[in-house]
Specification:
Blueprint lengths: L5 E2 L5 E2 L9 H38 L2 E3 L1 H11 L4 H8 L3 H8 L7 H11 L3 H4 E3 L3 H4 L1
Antiparallel strand pairs: 1-2, 3-4
Helix pairs in contact: 3-5
Amino acid sequence: MLIPPRIEATGRFFSPKLRGCNNDLTNYTLIITIFGYVCKFFLIILLHMLHLFWLFGYMITMPIQFLWSEVERLMDIRGIDNRDELAKIANIHRMNLYKISKNHVKPSLPALGKLCNALDCQPGDLLRFVRDETDAE
């Protein structure tokens, strides 16, 4: 049974408190609200999973490799002693350069440009195209 709100002497609306299953509309509203939160939660999880699959798929299928060995060779030629010095010259955060050097991430185009500027080279000097076996057929 639906209980309409009533007006108290102060002019405020007063609705009965939730106790047990007295108000069917309140119970349905509560169920719909909980269902909405659960749907939002699973939607967020799904979107995060799709984003991760996209990232990993991008990283796996990328036919271009970054050659850190070439960066080290150019560092020796230019007289740059270590990675921290290169990070300072290239204006790249040293942790980002560490992740690039350990092949945890691929350098972004701006980072690649900064590295090329600091090492006085072309992007093609630091990158290598790797043919896929399916491309060879």
